[in-house]
Amino acid sequence: MKAHGLNPRIRKSPYFQSTLKYGATEFHPYNGMWMPVGYDTPINEYWNTVERAGLWDVGVQRCIEISGPDAERFMSMLTPRDISNIKVGQCRYIVMTNQEGGVLNDPVMMRMAEDKFWLSTADSDMYLWTKGVACYSGHDVIIETPAVYPLQIQGPRSHLIVSALFGDDVLDLKYYDWMKADIHGIDVIISRTGYSSEIGFEIYILGYERGDELYETIMQAGKPFELSPGSPNRIRRIEGGVLDYGSDILVDNNPLELSMERLIDFNKPDFIGKTALQKIRDEGVTRKMVGVFMDG
Amino acid sequence: MKAHGLNPRIRKSPYFQSTLKYGATEFHPYNGMWMPVGYDTPINEYWNTVERAGLWDVGVQRCIEISGPDAERFMSMLTPRDISNIKVGQCRYIVMTNQEGGVLNDPVMMRMAEDKFWLSTADSDMYLWTKGVACYSGHDVIIETPAVYPLQIQGPRSHLIVSALFGDDVLDLKYYDWMKADIHGIDVIISRTGYSSEIGFEIYILGYERGDELYETIMQAGKPFELSPGSPNRIRRIEGGVLDYGSDILVDNNPLELSMERLIDFNKPDFIGKTALQKIRDEGVTRKMVGVFMDG
Questions:
Q1: Contact across the interface for B132 and A136, Cβ inside 8 Å
Q2: How far is CA A40 from CA A45, A60, A204, A256, B147, in A?
Q3: Cβ-based contacts of A38 with chain B (< 8 Å)
Q4: In this predicted model, what pLDDT tens digit does every residue of A4-61 receive, in sequence order?
Q5: What are the φ/ψ torsions at residue B83 (nearest 5 degrees)?
Q6: What's the gap in Å between the CA of A291 and the closest CA on chain B?
Q7: A210, exposed or middle or buried, with CB in 10 Å at 0-12, 13-18, 19+?
Q8: Please, where are the H alpha helices in A169-260?
Q9: Chain B residue closest to A35 (CA)?
């Protein structure tokens, strides 16, 4: 038994050919795209990330763009988190909940303009959700899936590599800030975010066509720093307490039992799931996700 | 390069062990579940279906249940098709559209009770869409994903097999009708529907646990009729003009360019996408999907 090759119903990332070239041997379906998940052994990929730096194709974090005059009001309805203080140039980790307070996704939200937000999503289709909510919510918004695809550079040498590529401005980026940049005329958005507990950056290409060119440029610039191709490392993320939507978190979970109180602002006038989450809070959560320490 | 085995993020159908036992060698991700797509060669599977009968695990047609006092009004908003005349015990092929008239899915809708509908969906997450729409639509509905998973028996001998299993009542089922039945205490819903242009039935198990028992029971009953394990056959469906959401149809397509006029009732007071589709109709479609005849 096997999964059917790389079934063409599932989309390929703009970096696909590069990931093959650099040794990707296994792919997972994620958000309707193939995510490369294996190059080296997970243990070698762990040490690459922890001691040097890894370059990960995470184009699967399919981006949802919400824009228009009511973009902030609409965005605020979609998440329990207070987003009123998020400025253009900043990102936030948020949860999105349904009417029962169940977690639908835990994307990184990026404020791209006063009236424009991006959601860099985990593995569930937020286009369908947000577009559905907008049918009757009465907000003047446009919801699209722009052709922007992130790479992640994660690890203690990642700042050396991105500054070699994009200049020293990138070193001024605060944690969860983003900036525009370009290289060889390829426009990108760079954010100080990522799916590891190491220092790291995400580089979103604007457009699909020049993905392999960008990937190659990064690999060349990373050579002196021993940059390795890799993928979101399960050992490091579990060690770092980084949750994974689709395995640790399901729609049956609510943010309170996941200890995400900091992502909920009950003082907001309204958000989807507020009534349900208030009830859960008042009655007390019945189960709680906790970390474990493992020896060995 | 290969897809990563049978990645556990993607769910398995209740018939999974049986499909392995009967020779499934390849699986596709579809609606967040693994769909067995290869047993024999596609050409042998074609002749099995066209000359005898095939048993297909299509548990991936993830079922959405819409129930409650406003279920009919809500369901009617979700599709351009007139559903007011659909009685309990009947099914209909429908399209579901977004605000721009783009096709989100083309499920089989089943009326399970006056106030309860099932959607047996193609490959896009209608839980997220319908649940999103319900946030602000003002309808009193409950939206769930019940544990019901269809098998299809398709082919000219399919009626002989289902009547051997469930009795002669099943022969009275009209095209696109459904009925309740049970075998060895396993409750099922049987419908005269399917993804071939042959005579065929779908059998929805109610519950996950006894899937393999049901599959085995059907295979045994099918022996005298040379029932073969199989999967939705691409040759037969293309030959029969049966469209495939995710390959033939994308969200960029509207029902008018797909020649689905029969699935649109512009006289309905309202449905999602009505304004957009009226505009497309009035201005004329700019492209049209057509069939081709192939010789050889």
A1: no
A2: 6, 20, 24, 37, 38
A3: 4
A4: 567 778 899 999 999 999 999 889 899 999 999 988 888 888 888 999 999 999 999 9
A5: -115, 5
A6: 21
A7: middle
A8: 211-222, 234-239
A9: B3
CB contact (8 A) between residue A7 and residue B1: no
Structure tokens at A54: 């890894």
**What would the pLDDT profile of A124-172 be if each residue is shown by its tens digit?**
999 999 999 999 999 999 999 999 999 999 999 999 999 999 999 999 9
CA dihedral (B146, B147, B153, B158) positive or negative: negative
ipTM of the prediction: 0.93
Average pLDDT, chain B: 93
Q: Across chain B, where does the E strand assignment appear?
A: 2-3, 26-30, 33-38, 54-57, 63-67, 91-93, 96-97, 103-105, 108-113, 116-120, 142-144, 148-154, 178-183, 186-191, 200-206, 228-230
Count other Cβ atoms within 10 Å, centred on residue B52.
18
Q: DSSP letters of B153-216?
A: EESTTHHHHHHHHH-GGGGGPPTTBEEEEEETTEEEEEES--SSSSSEEEEEEESSTTHHHHHH
Show which of residues 114-143 on chain A sit within 8 Å of chain B, judged by CB atoms: 123-126, 128-138
Q: Report all structural domains of chain B as residue ranges with CATH numbers, in order of start.
A: 16-62+146-239 (3.30.1360.120), 63-144+247-277 (3.30.70.1400)
The crossing angle, in degrees rounded to 10, of helices A126-134 and B126-134 is 30
* Pick among A2, A26, A34, A79 to test the B interface (most B CBs inside 10 A): A2
